[in-house]
Amino acid sequence: MLNFSDLKIRTKRPDLMHRLVNIAVASFFSFYIYGIIARLATGTCVTLSIALLFRNTSITLVFLLRRPSKLTSRNVGDWIAAISGTFITYLYTSSAKPIYPYIMPTAYIVMILTAFLSTICIINLGRSFGIVPANRGVKTELLYGIVRHPLYSLYTIYDLAVISLAFSPHNCYIAILHALFSYLRAKREENILMLDRTYKEYVSKTRYMFLPGVL
């Protein structure tokens, strides 16, 4: 059960810490964008690189522009799940081999589509985008009208394509952890968002969290 001592209510204008955090996270993703551009220059996986460039550029921009939260969790477990779920995929290794060579074209198509769809979700969230559980405004349009956490669903599908291309026990372990953290993030975010009447109405209309008719 949610304890109100685990919440922080914000009613003032963005403070210095809010701005510094936004800049720090945006800077991290900017560094990743630089790596994508460098890969593009070599002509490697051009379409996928463009899709990832769009996705990470959108994350960088929304972090620079995002609004301060109305309500933010101060629960340590919430923060661990959110931060781990965000950055654990950087531990994937690319030295492994595909499960079956003929699956490579399909896997690349899945990665490209999920990267572009993730960009749509991020842009849709806009200034409400964040990492730790908080209420920065409820979004119910586009893919969020189908399931409540489409971005996490897309990340998981993307991971499945990744491990099919670079299959190893290590990468499978990272993918399982990422899926687990995504589930925990969604549940912990909803603990806070359910305090908002708008979100309660949204949940009553949008039953499933991740996959229509399944979960």
List keywords for this structure.
215 residues, Four Helix Bundle (Hemerythrin (Met), subunit A)
DSSP strand tally:
3
Tally of distinct domains: 1
Order of helices and strands: EHHEHHEHHH
Percent of residues in helices = 55-70%
Classification by helices and strands: mainly alpha
Radius of gyration: 18 Å
The biggest beta sheet, please? 3 strands, antiparallel
The CATH architecture can be given as: Up-down Bundle
CATH fold-type name: Four Helix Bundle (Hemerythrin (Met), subunit A)
Distance between the termini: 21 Å
Query: Roughly what fraction of the amino acids lie in strands?
Result: under 5%
Average pLDDT, rounded to a whole number, is: 88
Envelope shape = globular
As residue ranges, the low-confidence spans are none
Biggest β-sheet: strands ordered side by side in the sheet? 1-2-3
Polypeptide structure, described:
The protein is mostly helical and 215 residues long. It has one domain (4-205): Up-down Bundle (Four Helix Bundle (Hemerythrin (Met), subunit A)), CATH 1.20.120. The protein is built from 7 helices and 3 strands; from the N terminus they run E-H-H-E-H-H-E-H-H-H. It has helices at residues 16-41, 46-65, 76-87, 104-125, 150-165, 169-193, 197-205; strands at residues 7-9, 71-73, 134-135. The protein has a 3-stranded antiparallel beta sheet. Helix 1 runs antiparallel to helix 2 (46-65), helix 2 runs parallel beside helix 4 (104-125) and helix 3 (76-87) packs across helix 6 (169-193). The protein starts with 6 loop residues before the first strand and ends in a 10-residue tail after the last helix. The relative contact order is 0.14. The mean pLDDT is 88.
